[in-house]
């Protein structure tokens, strides 16, 4: 049934679907770079607006999200290429262990619980809870003193970042938000917490996206999905590159409470809409 019980919504035409794919792609890049949950936005914003994203089929929507992540991952590689090359040149045992241990928890949890999480938790109500809960924890962690710098990261810090990335598999929590929260809880300065978050992000985003693209290729592209998938991926790539100033915004030693407040507002709007439909 449509919103307010007015019956099923008519399917969007081809131009409408492409327009929605473009809008979601343009939103995805900035949302990935900020601690506000890109996947939560891809699900919640169309739902709040009263449309089905690019499709009413949950499987097509999940596949479309993979395309968005692919565009964002490519944009991040291009945008952070100098930083990535510098990190690769300067890698040592400790820094290598930080990245390796940041990968371990999300890989284990992802393989074990990916399908149940997608099936039972990827709904507006649970996404809203993830947004709000993540905002509260982030706000509390950001009250910690700024005592440590990027080069002081130890393997145990990598493990905490990995646990945070595993928690981010819960829809709405936000990978960036969770890793920033973990780094601030470990008393890293905001600028260094953001840098740590970026360094552990690319392996997880790249690995998860590659695996899901492989699965999508094995299953085959949903009928009629190629064009909106390409539009969404291209828009996500462009918006990621265009959102470079957002990294500078987060890195200016500004408190994280505005992002936490925004998450609470968005999550509350979703919960209010759910309550009004009961």
Shape estimate: globular
Terminus-to-terminus distance:
13 Å
Largest β-sheet summary: none
Residue share in helices? over 70%
Number of helices: 12
E-strand count: 0
Low-confidence stretches: 1-8
Secondary-structure element order, N to C: HHHHHHHHHHHH
Q: How large is the radius of gyration?
A: 19 Å
Mean pLDDT: 87
Portion in strands: under 5%
Number of structural units classed as domains: 1
Structural class of the helix and strand makeup? mainly alpha
Q: How would you explain this protein's 3D organization?
A:
The protein is mostly helical. It has one domain (10-276). Helix content is 74%, strand content 0%. It has helices at 14-33, 38-49, 58-79, 81-89, 93-120, 124-141, 155-167, 175-185, 190-219, 226-242, 244-250, 257-276. α8 (175-185) runs antiparallel to α9 (190-219). The model is unreliable at 1-8 (pLDDT under 50).
Note the main attributes of this structure.
278 residues; mainly alpha; 12 helices; globular; disordered N terminus
Which secondary structure elements does this structure contain, and how are they paired or packed?
Blueprint: H1 14-33, H2 38-49, H3 58-79, H4 81-89, H5 93-120, H6 124-141, H7 155-167, H8 175-185, H9 190-219, H10 226-242, H11 244-250, H12 257-276
Helix pairs in contact: 1-2, 1-3, 1-10, 2-6, 3-9, 3-10, 5-7, 5-9, 6-8, 6-12, 7-8, 8-9
In short:
By secondary structure, this protein is mostly helical.
């Amino acid at each position: 049934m449509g919103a307010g019980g007015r019956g099923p919504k008519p399917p969007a035409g081809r131009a409408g679907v492409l327009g929605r794919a473009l809008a979601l792609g343009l939103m995805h890049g900035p949302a990935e770079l900020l601690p506000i949950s890109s996947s939560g936005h891809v699900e919640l914003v169309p739902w709040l607006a009263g449309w089905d994203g690019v499709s009413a089929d949950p499987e097509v929507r999940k596949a479309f999200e993979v395309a968005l992540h692919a565009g964002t991952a490519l944009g991040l590689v291009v945008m952070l290429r100098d930083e990535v090359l510098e990190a690769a040149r300067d890698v040592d045992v400790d820094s290598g262990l930080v990245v390796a241990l940041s990968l371990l928890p999300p890989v284990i949890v992802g393989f074990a619980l990916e399908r149940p999480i997608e099936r039972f938790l990827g709904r507006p109500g649970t996404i809203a809870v993830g947004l709000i809960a993540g905002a509260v924890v982030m706000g509390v962690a950001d009250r910690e003193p700024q005592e440590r710098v990027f080069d002081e990261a130890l393997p145990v810090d990598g493990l905490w970042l990995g646990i945070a990335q595993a928690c981010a598999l819960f829809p709405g929590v936000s990978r960036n938000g969770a890793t920033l929260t973990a780094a601030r809880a470990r008393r890293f300065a905001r600028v260094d917490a953001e840098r740590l978050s970026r360094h552990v992000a690319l392996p997880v985003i790249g690995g998860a996206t590659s695996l899901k693209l492989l699965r999508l290729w094995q299953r085959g592209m949903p009928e009629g999905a190629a064009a909106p998938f390409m539009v969404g991926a291209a828009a996500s790539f462009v918006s990621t590159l265009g959102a470079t100033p957002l990294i500078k915004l987060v890195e200016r030693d500004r408190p994280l409470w505005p992002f936490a407040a925004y998450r609470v507002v968005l999550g509350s709007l979703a919960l209010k809409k759910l309550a009004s439909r009961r």
